[in-house]
Amino acid sequence: MKRRITLLPITIGLIILAVLTYFSGLLITTSIFDYRPENRTVLRLPPYEQQPFIQGDTFSLLSWNIGYAGLGMESDFFYDGGKMVIPPEHLYEKYYAGVLRQIEEFNNIDLILLQETDTFSTRSYYQNHYRDIAAGLGSHQGIFVKNYDSRFVPVPVHQPMGRVVSGLSLFTRLPLAEAEKIVFDENYAWPTRLFMPDRCFLAAKIPVNQTVSLVVINLHLSAFDDGKLRNAQLETVSDFMKTAWMNGHYVLAGGDWNMNPHEDDFRDFLSGDEAFSIPLLSASSVFDSSWHIAFDPDFPTNRDVSAPYIKGKTPTTIIDFYIASPNIEILEIRTLYDEFSYSDHHPVFLRFRLNPTLPAKI
């Protein structure tokens, strides 16, 4: 008995030492290999034979946060109060097959913007979403930029999220002149920033003529902050958009804004889903009425993931939408509602026209 009592403090000390060694090693290794993107990067475009300028003036676009094919209707997420970290493989395979099937049906859409496309992540069983989706969109040229690259996300402790490589994808049937990645200012201190996304937006220039382009932006703003970070990111992207417009271009941004398009409370949707609004966050706060904020008010684009989806009970909202410069005419906006079968977001379809009768700038 005395020997056990004597050994107990030593055992506890060894456990504490092992834990400290593990976390110290994790921080050192992750710091050494931390992904630190340049603030602004001009992207190398793959070779693609196309007309030098777009033909016509009316085009289609679709935006969808595919939720790394892990957040379909049966899933919840630990960071939002749920239990799931990595989806069971059978659910992941179901969601991913559904995502690929739907995207292949979008082959006739001119522009496709995707968020949370993984290329080498534990949570998506190390499958390369960008490569697989590009293979199914044979008529489109593709671009991928990382906005999340962490060698090991150590939370939650009982089941760490592990390796994450994820980002934004753009696919287009239209000619591309250039594309660049613009990284938002960092707001996370060390060591938190080692395990968080490096948020950015992707801006692609599609030439209309020798001097004017359609500038298409794919973005995914931050979540799980008090709002200051998202508002700062909104200011950055709005300044970029307004500058491009003042320089005579057509400008259109879409994606997951993680805020509502307007401050107004949403009524319950035609789908029967319960609606909620995100307080003190809206895209309309930095764009005047000459800009078009396009969304479908009848259906939600995003759901709460603290529990699996139950129609009529799960809180839902609109955070996926488009903002277009005054010289773009919105012809159709439609949420492709499917009861969140394969993602916690719905795809949002847009049809628009470049309108030369409207001033490119004022």
Characterization of this structure:
This protein has 362 residues and is an alpha+beta fold. It folds into two domains: 1-32; 40-354, Endonuclease/exonuclease/phosphatase (Deoxyribonuclease I, Chain A, 4-Layer Sandwich). Helix content is 20%, strand content 28%. It is built from four helices and 16 strands. The protein is globular. The model has no long low-confidence stretch (mean pLDDT 89).
Q: Layout of helices and strands, plus pairs?
A:
Blueprint: H1 2-32, E1 40-42, E2 58-65, H2 89-104, E3 111-118, H3 129-136, E4 141-153, E5 162-172, E6 178-183, E7 200-207, E8 213-220, H4 228-246, E9 250-256, E10 274-275, E11 292-294, E12 302-303, E13 315-317, E14 320-324, E15 328-335, E16 348-354
Parallel strand pairs: 2-3, 8-9, 10-13
Antiparallel strand pairs: 1-6, 2-16, 3-5, 4-5, 6-7, 7-8, 9-14, 11-14, 12-13, 15-16
The total domain count is 2
Q: What's the rounded overall pLDDT mean?
A: 89
The tally of beta strands, per DSSP, is 16
* CATH homology group of the largest domain: Endonuclease/exonuclease/phosphatase
The ordered H/E elements are HEEHEHEEEEEHEEEEEEEE
Q: What is the terminal-to-terminal distance?
A: 87 Å
Structural category is alpha+beta
Indicate the low-confidence ranges by residue numbers: none
